[in-house]
Amino acid sequence: MVKFIALARPLFVRACSFFPSLKSILLNGALNYVAAHYSFAGDGFATIHDVSYLSCPKFLKAWVDTFQFLPERPFYHHLKYRLHIAQYLSSIALNIDGVFLELGVNYGYTSKFLASYYESDIRFMARKFYLCDTWGGVCYENHLSYQQDIYTLVARRFVQYANVVLNRGLLPESLNSIELTSIAYLFLDLNNAALELDILESLWSRLSLRAVVIFDDFGWSFYDSSDRHKLESFLSSVNQHLLHFPCGTAALIKS
Fold first, then answer.
1. For residue 151, which phi and psi values (nearest 5 degrees)?
2. Relative to the CA of 225, which of 121, 135, 197, 217 has its CA 20 to 30 Å away?
3. Is the domain of 107 the same as that of 15?
4. Does residue 33 sit in the same domain as residue 71?
5. Distance between the two ends of the chain, CA-based, in angstroms?
């Protein structure tokens, strides 16, 4: 028995050293297969599965409208899956009381998509959709790409939607100027995890039952582990948990 163990040990060691190589081979093979057969690639992930829901006529019409008056840019195709997420979750919010609220708008890609997608839906048009941003200014001293004043252009993009209200100012102070008794849909895209948590805590009691909350960038690198832990600790304290998506978005439905 001792002799057998002595003989088997080097074989076992060699086998163990082979497993990482085997894992690498299998992983590379899987990646090569996805690269050759992907149905969607962008926003940090790729899939071989059915994505026909990104090509239905209503979706594509709103997709085209999303970039109205904007120059063509190479990253636009990445946004399709995020817009699908927002459209599905907002459809839940349409059936409950409360306003729609987007914090951190920039050119308003997601909000423009939703406004176009629901432009004939009385459930959407009958409620306010507040868009909150500074649309440029010195508050973005560490983000040069956001310093340009784009307010006039953004206002032009939403002029046809009577229920969309642009609320210009610094957050969270600018929230004091709008009516937020109940909120059905909250979209957070502030590129500032600490501020998003502060605002979520302050608005939590005003979120309707089954309200939708979307964190556009939760999975991205600037949401470091400590920020994620703080946010998830707060959500745990109110018995809520996040649904994560491969594009970096995370969301919840308030229960």
1. -60, -45
2. 135
3. no
4. no
5. 61
For residue 234, the number of C-alpha atoms closer than 13 Å in the C-beta half-sphere is 16
Q: Is the pLDDT of residue 6 over 60?
A: no
Domain assignment present for 43: no
Residue 232 belongs to domain with CATH number: 3.40.50.150
- With a pLDDT cut of 90, the percent of the chain lying above it is 72
Q: What residues make up the domain containing 174? A: 52-253
Q: Please tell me the predicted confidence (pLDDT) of residue 150.
A: 95
The proportion of the chain whose per-residue pLDDT surpasses 70, expressed as a percent, equals 86
In this structure, how many other beta carbons lie within 10 angstroms of the beta carbon of residue 250?
Answer: 24
Buried b (16+ CB within 10 A) or exposed e, 149-188: ebeeebeebbeebebbbbbbeebeebbeeeebeebbbbbb
Q: Are 222 and 191 in contact (CB under 8 A)?
A: yes
Distance CA(93)–CA(102), nearest Å, equals 13
